[in-house]
């Protein structure tokens, strides 16, 4: 007998999927933007209180811990999110499956920590890994309730949870740093954030799992989740495997500088791409049977992301070194040059970001794995070639890999998800042209404002110039996309206004 679906209906009642997606995207943007701003401010404070070596040690530990965290989650969140009808049996089994896998993963991490620390020539890494490994079961328990909130478009609740968690964990970390805890301040931040995130997810979900563990559903979870977990591991390692090689070759301090450069690039992803991506999987999964609608939705997601990501990364590429020194201090100066190089991958950054959700929506986890494997293999090879030439060369190797593998995911999307590639290209070209034009103008304007002694004022003027010019270029070259965005926003706001009367 088939288990009945869980009782809670999707948020938004009978609202059209497009409007519910837009509403969820808005709340996701608020959640991630608010959390990113808060965490970044706290990150700045911690960077000045600690330094490159402490951040490097934590980053080296984080490579292994993140592997454990992905394995502990076992792809359960994606499996719950994409279920057309979520049953009690599937949800309950998913909770206990994730907990079981997390206990095994935590134990393995604790055991391998000393050997990994010796391999990267950083003994201080081992106790940090072991401490964080103990929290994996706690964070794994939060996967299913968070996924249920996401699949039911409960992004407003998730927004407040993320903001509260980020503030509390960050404040505790700053207090720990002031008290002289050093790198363990970052460990405290991670532990507090994980515990609070899980606790708040269960509080908001208002659902409790039954004591059910059905083997047939475990096999179903394992079949889907093995590919998804491997893919997530490879995606994570794409950006983190270089840390290991840098640590062995140049030491923890250089890892810290490289990681800060990546942190600045990831800030763009967290602010713009992450909220849209969290909605994309849910929306595209509901359109699996209508490939034409899926293609339109996919290209709409890509176009919206391009409008936000391209100007941020293009402008940052021009101003990166000045921004890093102003915000972090002179000891972090090397991170600015690395960030400038990494910002050059804006085009593949956007175009490849939604390939995973789209292929997952049409139940093609094996193809996601093939993309991740190709990109990871090339990243590893190019990094080994570039490593003797310094951090800039390592960053350039990553950017080169992103362009070399740009076409493959797009071909798979066209063949297996029916995505119109011409529509994808049409969605990204206008914002790209506008962003490049803006960046060239800002670069040309740098000598004009160079006589201003106050660095903050110089940057503020250049940012204002770039923002105004980008807006003007969008009106001239990307008006159709702006009109579409405005129409969706107006329809959404109109529906909300009517609902409150």
Verbal overview:
Helices cover 83% and strands 0% of the residues. It is mainly alpha-helical.
What are the SSEs and their pairings?
Layout: H1 17-49, H2 52-73, H3 76-81, H4 88-119, H5 125-133, H6 136-141, H7 143-151, H8 155-178, H9 184-205, H10 215-250, H11 252-286, H12 291-328, H13 333-342, H14 346-351, H15 355-361, H16 365-386, H17 391-404, H18 407-417, H19 421-449, H20 455-477, H21 479-500
Helix pairs in contact: 1-8, 1-11, 1-21, 2-4, 2-5, 2-10, 2-11, 4-5, 4-10, 7-9, 8-9, 10-11, 10-16, 11-12, 11-13, 11-15, 12-13, 12-19, 12-20, 13-17, 16-17, 19-20
- What is the N-to-C succession of helices and strands? HHHHHHHHHHHHHHHHHHHHH
Largest β-sheet summary: none
Q: Quote the average pLDDT.
A: 80
Radius of gyration: 22 Å
Query: What global shape is seen?
Result: globular
Beta-strand residue percentage: under 5%
Structural class: mainly alpha
Helix-residue proportion: over 70%
> How many runs of DSSP E, i.e. beta strands?
0
Low-confidence regions: 1-15, 491-501
What attributes characterize this protein structure?
501 residues, mainly alpha, globular, disordered C terminus
Structure summary:
With 501 residues, the chain is mostly helical. It contains 21 helices and no strands. The chain is globular, with a radius of gyration of 22 Å.
């Amino acid at each position: 007998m088939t288990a009945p679906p869980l009782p809670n209906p999707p948020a938004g009642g009978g609202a059209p999927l497009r409007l519910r997606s837009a509403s969820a995207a808005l709340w996701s943007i608020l959640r991630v933007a608010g959390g990113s701003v808060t965490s970044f401010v706290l990150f700045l404070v911690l960077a000045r209180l600690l330094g490159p070596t402490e951040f490097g040690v934590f980053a080296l530990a984080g490579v292994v811990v993140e592997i454990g965290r992905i394995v502990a989650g076992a792809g359960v969140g994606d499996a719950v999110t994409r279920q057309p009808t979520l049953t009690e049996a599937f949800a309950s089994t998913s909770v206990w499956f994730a907990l079981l896998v997390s206990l095994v993963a935590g134990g393995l991490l604790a055991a391998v920590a000393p050997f990994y620390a010796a391999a990267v020539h950083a003994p201080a890494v081992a106790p940090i890994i072991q401490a964080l490994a103990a929290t994996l079961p706690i964070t794994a328990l939060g996967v299913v309730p968070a996924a249920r909130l996401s699949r039911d478009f409960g992004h407003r609740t998730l927004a407040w949870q993320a903001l509260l968690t980020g503030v509390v964990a960050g404040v505790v970390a700053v207090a720990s740093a002031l008290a002289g805890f050093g790198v363990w301040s970052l460990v405290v931040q991670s532990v507090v954030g994980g515990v609070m995130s899980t606790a708040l997810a269960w509080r908001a979900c208002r659902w409790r799992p039954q004591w059910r563990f059905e083997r047939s559903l475990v096999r179903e979870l394992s079949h889907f989740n093995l590919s998804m977990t491997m893919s997530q591991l490879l995606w994570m390692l794409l950006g983190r495997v270089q840390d290991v090689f840098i640590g062995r070759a140049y030491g923890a301090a250089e890892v810290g500088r490289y990681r800060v450069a990546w942190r600045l690039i990831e800030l763009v992803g967290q602010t713009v791409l992450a909220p849209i991506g969290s909605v994309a999987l849910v929306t595209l999964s509901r359109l699996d049977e209508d490939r034409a609608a899926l293609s339109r939705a996919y290209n709409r997601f890509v176009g919206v992301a391009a409008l936000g990501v391209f100007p941020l990364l293009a402008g940052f590429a021009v101003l990166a070194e000045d921004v890093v020194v102003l915000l972090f201090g002179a000891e972090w100066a090397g991170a600015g040059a690395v960030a400038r190089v990494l910002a050059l991958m804006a085009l593949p950054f956007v175009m490849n970001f939604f390939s995973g959700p789209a292929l997952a929506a049409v139940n093609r986890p094996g193809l996601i794995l093939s993309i991740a494997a190709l990109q990871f293999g090339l990243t590893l090879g190019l990094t080994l070639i570039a490593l003797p030439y310094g951090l800039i060369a390592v960053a350039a190797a990553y950017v080169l890999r992103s362009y070399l593998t740009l076409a493959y995911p797009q071909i798979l999307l066209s063949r297996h998800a029916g995505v119109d590639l011409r529509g994808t290209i049409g969605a990204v070209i206008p914002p790209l042209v506008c962003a490049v034009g803006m960046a060239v103008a800002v670069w040309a304007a740098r000598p004009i404002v160079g006589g201003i002694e106050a660095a903050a004022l110089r940057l503020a003027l250049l940012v204002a110039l770039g923002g105004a010019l980008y807006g003007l270029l969008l009106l001239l070259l990307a008006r159709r996309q702006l009109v579409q965005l405005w129409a969706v926003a107006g329809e959404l706001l109109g529906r909300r206004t009517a609902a409150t009367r």
